[in-house]
Amino acid sequence: MYFTDRGIEELEQRRGDEEVSFAWLAEHLREFVDLNPDFEVPVERLATWLARLDDDED
Length: 58
Fold this sequence. Notes:
Elements lengths: L3 H12 L6 H14 L4 H12 L7
């Protein structure tokens, strides 16, 4: 188990039954980066990865 899995597990336990839009998620990712600019690159990578999940792999 990676250290980050604990945060993911907490998220799932606390909010796993909720449904959110990608617009809501994008808004909160922007807010997080505004408050934590050191995390801009990892958040950008996560957002790009999520955006391209359904792209065909060449």
